[in-house]
Amino acid sequence: MIALADVQAAAERLEGVARRTPVVRMGPHVWLKAENLQRTGAFKFRGAFNAIALLTDAHGVATVSSGNHAQAVALAARLHALPVTVLMPDDAPDSKREATQELGAEIIAFDRYGEDRDDLLRALVAERGLAPVHPYDDDAVMAGQGTVALELLAQVPEIETLVVPVGGGGLISGCATVAAAAGVRVVGVEPEAGDDTRRSLAAGRRVAIDVPRTIADGQQTPTPGELTFPVVLRHVAEIVTVSDEEIIAAMRFAHEELEHVLEPSGASALAAVMQGRVGGGVLGVVLTGGNVDAERYADLTRPLDW
Amino acid sequence: MIALADVQAAAERLEGVARRTPVVRMGPHVWLKAENLQRTGAFKFRGAFNAIALLTDAHGVATVSSGNHAQAVALAARLHALPVTVLMPDDAPDSKREATQELGAEIIAFDRYGEDRDDLLRALVAERGLAPVHPYDDDAVMAGQGTVALELLAQVPEIETLVVPVGGGGLISGCATVAAAAGVRVVGVEPEAGDDTRRSLAAGRRVAIDVPRTIADGQQTPTPGELTFPVVLRHVAEIVTVSDEEIIAAMRFAHEELEHVLEPSGASALAAVMQGRVGGGVLGVVLTGGNVDAERYADLTRPLDW
After folding, report:
1. pLDDT above 50: residue A306
2. Do A205 and B231 touch (CB under 8 A)?
3. Interfacial residues of B (vs A; Cβ cutoff 8 Å)
4. Which of B1, B227, B233 has the CB atom closest to A234's CB atom?
5. Strand ranges (E), chain A
6. Which pLDDT does position B306 carry in this prediction?
7. For residues B215 and B263, what is the distance between their CA atoms, to the nearest angstrom?
8. DSSP state, residue B254
9. In the prediction, which pLDDT does A140 show?
């Protein structure tokens, strides 16, 4: 498993490259870490850059992603002067596909509900001799994402519980590694329809579900990662869930009260806190990203009485 | 994974059947749970009885064990009027083989260093139509062993850290399930040569080692259980190790100062505490068993200046 030292080393690599994102205070006991303001609009840049920085002898990189990780890898590879190929679901939001192409990546579309993404990535990597940068099941990616918690706990040392959205588990495994060393509790948040990690935690083994249908497209993984799950099992206190409606309410609140644009996955931890599902004293909540098509964003956040 | 309720249900089944073993105070902050005084001389009776009590339609039971679990299953099956077949390593201590035979079990010997015990058990069970009672990788066995912690924490509620020997992980997974619910820390103890669980905890996955050579014959498992390991990963704070010499020193101390006869595995947690390897406030230490041939016991505990 990754250790605190891996995250600390990642933080050194990211110094002057990743943004030290601001913390927004929301009430006396809740602090929000605005990773929607990270480069490429999501925390994913941290893990992607750390993983690519650790590559030796790579002639190019490849990944599979619904969007945020794709942009992160595209930018991180460009900063290392490496070409990138990205496998992307054919129903990925336009804004994410276009942003990834603009960063110089070649995109290959696949059917999210039909084909196994990890198999596709393995085949692509083997065929073209590329270095894979998995969206979450990679120690260097996990360590990079953990710098979110390292930064947040330095910015707000009084945090007692960290609240983190969970997809494949890259962000929460890195953050929980930091939090455990600091004696801070970690609560994960999944969409109701995509509670594979909550189920896996109860079972003590990785449980697979059908690809969940939820607006939180960054949290549609059907099972926790092979490398991320042991860290979750060891260091995450609890997983709570939120409905799509609760996520939308959190997006509206972020827009109206905080002036932050969040994508659905990026608002799920905030939604859990707004619903009173997370106890544990002073809370640090990760807003993971803000990449969402303008039209879809308007649809989602439009007041109900329109 | 098993839950506290499973251990509580096991405790009800064991009421009036298993002994409520005494607790010995060793200094102001250390309490010893004397499972060497349990029926058949080890905690193993708890898990075996609970597992057999939960069988329906069984015509007989089978297990594989170096000794203590064998006697436990033999007695528990006799109390349920069921025949027992036991696969036992051909180098098992005489006292354990004889005690198991006296309880009515049929013994089949195998080579501990050559044959896979789980494969042998599966074959025997299939061939004879018996119900298997695995020594540790069985939810009912784990829940039964957990009653040790349930009892100890009721006897000494001020305990802050539980110190438990680790073999396959049945005892510690049951005890840690109880301890986690009570907010009590759990530290496991392995022989230095048999630190497969310590390694697995660091790796986040089950690591296998060669069958370890150690005097602690109850702790010679080469890898943690498939069912026990997730519980260890989630609920055990730390694994520490002790040398065979340190185990012998603990056996001598128990004999001379406490008037308790312990087998090597039964003394390993005490050895860790005597060596100062376990912090964490008021300690509850499980003495797991006392089954050892008289001659071997005399050899091991003889003062060094003889």
Report:
1. no
2. no
3. 1, 202-205, 227, 230-231, 233-234
4. B233
5. 23-25, 30-34, 61-64, 84-89, 106-110, 131-132, 161-165, 185-191, 238-242, 283-287
6. 47
7. 9
8. I
9. 98
